Amino acid sequence: MYSSCLNGADPIGLSILLIVKLFSPLNIIVIDLNDSALQIAKKMPLIFAKK
Questions:
Q1: pLDDT band at 46 (very low <50, low <70, confident <90, very high)
Q2: What predicted TM-score, i.e. pTM, was given to this entire model?
Q3: Which of 44, 31, 35 is nearest to 5 (CA)?
Q4: Cβ atoms within 10 A of the Cβ of 4, count?
Q5: 28-36: long-range contacts, CB 8 A cutoff, minimum separation 24
């Protein structure tokens, strides 16, 4: 088991998130400074999204 951390919830980051989910990580953490991008990321089944 492993965890994954993505810096940036822009369109490219969210695309990478979908690819990472194919490998079923234990945790997925998304970090971004943009609140609206984090809101989109939070709608996906994530473990943690942080500003």
A1: low
A2: 0.69
A3: 31
A4: 16
A5: 28/3, 28/4, 29/3, 29/4, 29/5, 30/5, 30/6, 31/5, 31/6, 31/7, 32/7, 32/8, 34/9, 34/10
